[in-house]
Design brief:
2 copies of one chain form a homodimer.
Chain A (H helix, E strand, L loop, with lengths): L17 H4 L4 H14 L2 H13 L2 E2 H8 L3 H13 L3 E6 L2 E6 L1 H11 L5
Antiparallel strand pairs in A: 1-3, 2-3
Helix pairs in contact in A: 3-5, 4-5
The structure holds a DNA duplex (30 and 30 nucleotides).
DNA sequence: CCAGGTGTTTGACATACGTCAAGGAGGTGC
DNA sequence: GCACCTCCTTGACGTATGTCAAACACCTGG
């Protein structure tokens, strides 16, 4: 994966469904696949889910919630951050993560076969 | 992946966004992750894209279109089929694949944070 | 400054994944 | 039946991924 990640085109004018609309080019496919890979893991889905529901959570609360080491959770959060789905901010002793709804929405729109 | 794949709950009454609505359980996360994994590959995304756009295509046309061996394309189609996104039917000498829009739509609805 | 809690990075390991070549299974046409 | 096409399966290979323990970085509170 030597590709840069422009944090997805949340502001793109496309309404939706490049996937269903026409055969994707290879580059576009890689762009989307990288995001989907970031989501395609049970642990990361649960982390996203918690962050979407709770707005802001620190690693120390996320790790026990998924039953894994903080190191592992940190790794997963890094994947999500690289894909633009979350961002973390250090405040005091903790670092608080929050989900980016628009980024998730953008991926969903690209994939949705029923839109438009 | 020892889990059975019930070809996704296309008829489920849920309108959407179990991911954003509440913290997912581990089993639900696995269910969704398995589907996403099936989509999270550039080659498979392009295959889905072609099938969605063309309604029915045989392996012999798909393989050159993505520039890979027929063996490899067959493998990818198998992944997509196991996840319920496509199905293939042998007719004469060829086997024709078609995409299942509803299956893709179901995954999208589960993920969509803007719906509802 | 030092002790202790919180997060990330690194190294190591097992497993899963993507790819192809080779061989087999199913169908057609002579 | 036999040559031939299309497709799938198997075996093998390298790479990527998920996990943890250990070590490092950052902050807070005495």
């Amino acid at each position: 994966m030597p590709k840069a990640l422009p944090v997805i085109d949340a502001t793109a004018p496309v309404c939706c469904a490049p996937v269903a609309a026409a055969p994707m080019g290879e580059d576009a496919a890689i762009e989307v696949a990288v995001r989907l890979k970031a989501l395609a893991d049970p642990v990361r889905l649960r982390l996203m889910s918690m962050l979407l529901a709770a707005d802001e959570v620190c690693t120390c609360d996320l790790a026990p919630a998924v039953g894994l080491t903080e190191a592992t959770v940190s790794h997963h959060l890094g994947q999500l951050r690289k894909a633009g789905f979350v961002s973390g901010e250090r405040r005091g002793m903790n670092v608080f993560y929050r989900a980016h709804r628009e980024a998730l929405g953008a991926v969903v729109r690209v994939l949705d076969p029923d839109c438009c």
